[in-house]
């Protein structure tokens, strides 16, 4: 049976990585495959958005380096909200350097990402050493890594043999690499004809999701939850501005209504996929 037909609950049992399992379990428990990307620049806006979308999401995606008044109190409050509303945290850091440097960027500095983010991601461009560098910090903490196999932007270079190589790198490091940021399922991608990939169960988290627009003026491209979940077999929809608009003048009631709307669209699409 294709993995895309299995329920999130069934797939949770197939994962030994603690973060992958926890994510799939929370998706099933809360009936949501919505991840909100909270790209706002102040602590107060960030916490207001998370507080209102919390009940509708499985995951909060952060870019902590854009928050002007970042401090560890913000992380403490985010952690409290993640317990209160039952969601995981994903810092979209997009590491891209040599193993030694990424290990330091992941563990140290102002943000100390590994200490609070269940999931993070990396560009495969440096080759497998980026995985071993990050794994030296993340594996002992039960963290999970996503590789950027594809991007949502117009003209992205992450295609073809680059994407295939990313999937091969993931297959060789399944204890830590739990899936991909990609625009479609990666089952069997890059495998040699005699290689069995049936045991693979990579999570596909997909940005570039919007119901009211097909893109922005800076190369972003949007598809609907149905296109992403049903047609392309992805697992988690990542939505930013579709939920909170441009961030200036946050209207909390609209944010809540949009989070509810995307959650419903994403979950209905998933149900159509597993039943269809
Ligand atoms: P948007 O407001 O829904 O367009 O925000 C999308 C978010 O996902 C934003 O934080 C990006 O940094 C992130 N993203 C993306 O849009 N496309 C990609 O391919 C990757 C990340 Br990887």
TrEMBL record:
Catalytic activity: orotidine 5'-phosphate + H(+) = UMP + CO2
Domain Orotidine 5'-phosphate decarboxylase: 33-255
SUPFAM superfamilies: Ribulose-phoshate binding barrel (SSF51366)
Gene3D superfamilies reported in the protein's UniProt record: Aldolase class I
Keywords: Decarboxylase, Lyase, Pyrimidine biosynthesis
Pathway: Pyrimidine metabolism; UMP biosynthesis via de novo pathway; UMP from orotate: step 2/2
Enzyme class: lyase
GO molecular function: orotate phosphoribosyltransferase activity; orotidine-5'-phosphate decarboxylase activity
Statement: the UniProt record of this protein carries the keyword Glycoprotein: no
Residues bound to substrate: 39, 61, 152, 220, 240-241
Active-site residues per Swiss-Prot or TrEMBL entry: 92, 94, 97
Enzyme Commission number(s) of this protein: 4.1.1.23
A GO BP entry: 'de novo' pyrimidine nucleobase biosynthetic process
A Pfam family matched in the record: OMPdecase
Keyword Methyltransferase: no
Similarity comment: family membership: Belongs to the OMP decarboxylase family.
NCBIfam families noted in UniProt: pyrF
Protein name: Orotidine 5'-phosphate decarboxylase
UniProt source species: Cerrena zonata
């Amino acid at each position: 049976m294709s993995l895309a037909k299995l329920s999130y609950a069934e797939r949770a049992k197939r994962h030994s990585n603690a973060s992958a399992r926890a994510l799939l379990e929370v998706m099933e428990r809360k009936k949501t495959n919505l991840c909100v990307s909270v790209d706002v620049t102040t602590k107060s806006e960030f916490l207001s958005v998370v507080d209102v979308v919390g009940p509708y999401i499985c995951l909060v995606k952060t870019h902590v380096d854009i928050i002007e008044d970042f401090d560890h109190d913000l992380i403490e409050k985010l952690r409290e909200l993640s317990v209160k509303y039952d969601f995981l945290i994903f810092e979209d850091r997009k590491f891209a350097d040599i193993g030694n440097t990424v290990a330091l960027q992941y563990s140290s500095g102002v943000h100390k990402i590994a200490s609070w983010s269940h999931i993070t991601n990396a560009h495969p461009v440096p080759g497998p050493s980026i995985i071993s560098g990050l794994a030296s910090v993340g594996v002992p903490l039960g963290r999970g890594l996503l590789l950027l196999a594809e991007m949502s932007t117009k003209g992205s270079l992450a295609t073809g043999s680059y994407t295939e190589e990313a999937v091969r790198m993931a297959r060789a490091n399944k204890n830590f690499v739990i899936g991909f940021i990609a625009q479609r399922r990666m089952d069997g991608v890059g495998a040699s004809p005699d290689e069995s990939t049936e045991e693979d169960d990579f999570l596909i988290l997909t940005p570039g999701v919007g119901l009211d627009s097909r893109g922005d003026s800076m190369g972003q491209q949007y598809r609907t939850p149905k296109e992403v979940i049903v047609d392309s077999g992805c697992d988690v929809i990542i939505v930013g501005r579709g939920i909170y608009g441009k961030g200036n003048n946050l209207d909390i009631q609209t944010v809540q209504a949009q989070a509810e709307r995307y959650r419903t669209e994403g979950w209905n699409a998933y149900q159509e996929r597993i039943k269809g």
